[in-house]
Amino acid sequence: MNIWRISFKNIKSKPLYTLLSVFILSLSITLLLGIQQLKSSFEFQMENNLGGVDMVIGAKGSPLQLVLSSILHIDNPTGNIPYKEALKIGKNPMIKTAVPISYGDNYRGFRIVGTSPEFLTLYKAELATGKSVEKSLEVILGHQVAEQLQLKLGDTFLSSHGLVENDVDIHDDEFIVVGILKPTQKVIDRLIVSNLESIWDVHDHEDHDEEEGKHHDHDKEGEHEHKHEEDHVHDDDKEVTSLLISFRSPRAMLTLPRRINKKTNMQAALPKYELDKLYEYTGVGFTTITWIAYLILIISGMTIFLSLYKMVKERAFDLALLRTYGASNFQLIKMVAYEGFSIVGLAFIVGFLFTKLGLYLMFQFQGNSLQQSLIQELPLQQALKIIGLVFAMIIISILLAIYPIIKMNISKILSHEK
Asked: Which one, 35, 167, 283, 392, has the greatest CB density within 10 A?
């Protein structure tokens, strides 16, 4: 007697119940997997991408925006700060390292960051091939950038103005790839790293082109003097987007941020504090959606139980006949169990696909800045926990549904049907 074949025919005989059970259960699994994956990704980004940065200094504005833009590179900067002022702060004896970063351009959605060589050490990034940046317009590619854009050593490209990919505002200066980093599973994997001079040169040339257009009618000598004066002023007025600070001692965290916020036209933000605060806000949403998923899981368990129980009650005569033909109670219970586990297995496949598709579409609509490797794979422990919970629910549903089989009175059922 092929119990599996009988179970499969039972499932086919009630397609509406089966589809409803699979849909509700897969919805619950999708929410549970999706929210846990988002939660794990958020925690990973917070812990893994701080890179030893204790404080970020940037233009006045939202401290959270400053942290998101300078640490995770998923927001717009609050503005620029004078490079000279940043250097002065970096000389403070309480500061161990001060790494300036400057950005505002991208190539096909990946940010180009001008910085100092210490930037790579923040993320313990190492070269897989090539060499370090030595002069202006040389770049090192993060692992994901090189992989996704299929760039190699010696390739050149033109950057676009802004942080969003566009074909309208493209700079004339060509960047050349001189190095490619090993994968780090950190934000630097999706960055294009250059030196500060590269960012300044690209924008200085643009400024000079505008000035030449405005003063096209001036005589050559006057224009030359004006350009020389403009260059000199600009040299004294370099700007960076932010400064990434590591402290020598935790005591600096108590005094330095407050002093910078009060006595300068810049702002200091503590990444760990800001990201913890963000996590508290988003944690409420995570918890709410998780409880909704659990509620749907309970409803799906009830639906599966009703479906199996209805099958047992409606097919009591058939089940009794199977018993008279030699089938044991255990075989009938297996038939019900096969149905339940088939529904769960199908729901897991659908739920997993929905999770992957849903997260992909969500980050696709958000743009490349969020799409690039922000999502991490769900830890195996979390996935096993969800799988165990769903299987525990289906086992309870099966145990409740098989009660009529255990209490079955074969002679009474057959005589009643006759």
From this structure: 35
Tokens of 285: 């949403």
Q: Under a CB-based contact definition with an 8 Å cutoff, are residues 332 and 316 in contact?
A: no
Which stretches of 215-270 are DSSP H helices?
A: 220-235, 252-263
Strand 138-141 with 170-181, pairing: parallel
The amino acid present at 197, given as its one-letter code, is E
- Residue 214 confidence (pLDDT): 45
The dihedral over CA atoms of 343, 348, 353, 358, expressed in degrees to the nearest 10, equals: 110
Which residues, 6 or more positions from 367, have their beta carbon under 8 angstroms from its beta carbon?
A: 109, 164
Distances in whole angstroms, Cα of residue 118 to Cα of each of 88, 163, 244: 17, 23, 10
State the pLDDT at residue 54.
92
The DSSP output letter for 93 is T
Query: Which residues neighbour 413 within 8 Å (Cβ) at sequence distance 6 or greater?
Result: 316, 317, 320
Q: What share of the chain has pLDDT > 90, as a percent?
A: 31
Closest by CA to 22, choosing from 357, 291, 352, 286, is 352
Closest listed residue to residue 333, CA positions, set 405, 282, 271, 231: 405
Which run of H or E residues covers position 175? strand 170-181
Structure tokens at 73: 């590179």
CB-based contacts of 117: which residues, under 8 Å, 6+ apart? 132, 133
Note the pLDDT tens digit of each residue in 379-418: 777 788 888 888 888 888 888 887 777 766 666 666 765 4
Residue 306 tokens read as 């009703």
Q: pLDDT tens digit string along 294-320?
A: 888 888 888 888 877 777 777 777 677
Q: What share of the chain is helix, strand, coil (3-state, %, to 5)?
A: 60, 15, 20
Spatial separation of the C-alpha atoms in residues 259 and 244, rounded to whole Å: 17
Contact of 173 with 227, CB cutoff 8 Å: no
Cα separation, 322 vs 37, whole angstroms: 46
DSSP helix/strand/coil, 168: coil
Q: Which of 347, 345, 339 is nearest to 398 (CA)?
A: 339
Q: pTM here? A: 0.69
Distance CA 346, CA 380 (A): 20
> Are the CB atoms for 203 and 240 separated by under 8 Å?
no
Q: Tell me the pairing of strands 191-195 and 110-115.
A: parallel
